[in-house]
Amino acid sequence: MTDFDEAPTGFRCRRGVPGDAPALASFAEAIFRETFGPGNRPDDLDAYIATAYGPGRQEAELRDPAIVTLLAEMEGALAGYVQLSARRQPEAATWPAPVEIMRFYVDRRWQGRGVARALMLEALMEAVRMGGRTVWLCVWEHNPRAIAFYAKCGFADVGSAPFQLGADRQTDRIMARSLAGDAPASTTLRGG
After folding, report:
1. Which of 140, 130, 142, 145 is nearest to 175 (CA)?
2. pTM of model > 0.85
3. What is the distance between the terminal CA atoms of the chain, rounded to a whole angstrom?
């Protein structure tokens, strides 16, 4: 895997449970607004958040056996989270045993302090435990900081996919990497 530093002091990663739903919903909404609010219309943001981050939705995802949610904690508080699933892959992909990173967010106050790298390592190890040989994700094309982070973690840009934020149809970059130590899956997806 990629060369990762040790986790920062005080970092703890654990699986989310249904009881985490209210805190996760509040955290996820706040991080989403902070990350994407400045570049999007408030109505589009509100429409997406209403369907993606409510406590009921988070509880359903935490109960879903096909979704793994890992919570990163620092100093006893939620600092980030990642959700993984092996349910789907991009339409034109022919990757072996793909696992999707559905969501990957770290609170801004912990960015640049090793939390994201430690959480990514946990996510990659979980993808392997899920039987994955390839891991992939989508990232907004106007989020250069996230794109650079994923590239540092060994992901390659392999195409694009539409993303609907309220009434605004946007474009995400699809990024993928092998979990087997060979080259990224960049040649196995056409388009974008």
Report:
1. 140
2. yes
3. 26
